[in-house]
Write a structure and sequence with these properties.
Thrombin, subunit H, 2 domains, 6-stranded antiparallel beta barrel, QueA-like, 9-stranded mixed beta sheet, 341 residues, alpha/beta
Length: 341
């Protein structure tokens, strides 16, 4: 299967640069994945498509203000690092620019030395491992010195950092937001629960794969990077009960979908567990964990558009994206949403 099969035309002006003033006022395209039939709504209408006894699963990961701009101690050259993964204690895997300037032993200083990063390993494609040197609480230092690691297609400065965070974000550790969840407000979630829909949370810390394009022609050759996930016992029990009762499991976002499918693949049912997943979902995949999916509009030729194509059919998805362009939907992280039912 060729990466080029997942390409589509997108005018640059449809890439959302800023979040809407009201989270749940975004548009919602609803598509029947069996027929390809499309409806146009606003996001608050999602409640009409959720039934009593269904379970809505959200990813409660919280984005680190992980983008740091500092200087190389020896030369004062400006260096940017993006914290991707906490490997152990204060050792972090980072995406580094310009990486060629960073060798083992190089120290990068941030905030007049309040935080320092010493390179201890040189990887490929801009990856470096740093030991972070500081006194105090790292998260507090990052909140002071760091910024949200917005995707490279967003050129506007984010005025309110909390808008790149879901309203239910809890478990710190992501390098990017699970953006399908950005549409929810606390009020909307309460209305959903009041309707008799179960709402529960898993965690998947979004990592390097979000920032890496597919660089091979044949998608079967693409290697996904591992991301940490966890599921609690009460959530596993609720999901198994939902299945037993013949109700739907509705994933909010591709990160949630990947977590649920990983667990069903590895354990044949939902269980309390945690670990690392590099699951790569593309057409031909058999879904066992989810019945419906709330998601945003994804980049051409990305692993995310491959996942939604696996779930709803490549022709259906490419047609839906064509309609979305025609109807001037907003695309990507701060854009509009789809409900694949």
């Amino acid at each position: 299967m060729n990466v080029a099969d997942f390409d589509y035309y997108l005018p640059e002006e449809l890439i959302a640069q800023t979040p809407l003033k009201v989270r749940d006022s975004s548009r919602l395209m609803v598509m029947d994945r069996n027929t390809g039939e499309i409806e146009h709504h606003v996001f608050t209408d999602i409640i009409d498509y959720l039934n009593k006894g269904d379970t809505l699963v959200l990813n409660d990961t919280k984005v680190l203000p992980a983008r740091l701009i500092g200087v190389k101690e020896e030369t004062n050259a400006v260096i940017e690092i993006l914290l991707l993964k906490n490997l152990e204690s204060d050792i972090w895997e980072c995406l580094t620019k310009p990486a060629r300037r960073i060798k083992v032993g190089t120290i990068v200083s941030f905030g007049n030395g309040e935080l320092k990063a010493k390179c201890i390993y040189e990887g490929e494609e801009g990856i470096r491992h740093f030991e972070l040197l500081y006194s105090g609480i790292l998260l507090e230092i990052l909140e002071k010195l760091g910024t949200m690691p917005l995707p490279p297609y967003i050129h506007e400065k984010l005025k309110d950092q909390s808008r790149y965070q879901t309203v239910y974000a809890k478990e710190v550790g992501s390098a990017a937001a699970p953006t399908a969840g950005l549409h929810f407000t606390k009020e909307l979630l309460k209305r959903i629960e009041d309707k008799g829909v179960h709402v529960c949370y898993i965690t998947l810390h979004v990592g390097l794969g979000t920032f890496r394009p597919v660089s091979v022609s044949n998608i079967e050759e693409h290697e996904m990077h591992s991301e940490y996930y966890s599921m609690k016992k009460e959530v596993a029990n609720l999901l198994n009960e939902t299945r037993k009762n013949g109700k739907r499991i509705i994933a909010v976002g591709t990160t949630t979908a990947r977590t649920l499918e990983t667990i069903r693949r590895d354990y044949a049912e939902f269980v309390e567990c945690s670990g690392w997943t590099n699951i790569f979902i593309y057409p031909g995949f058999t879904f066992k964990g989810i019945d419906a999916l709330i998601t945003n509009f994804h980049l051409p030729k990305s692993t995310l558009i491959m996942l939604v194509s696996a779930f709803a059919g490549k022709e259906n998805i490419l047609n839906a994206y064509k309609v979305a362009v025609k109807e001037k939907y907003r695309f990507f992280s701060f854009g509009d949403a789809m409900f694949l039912k």
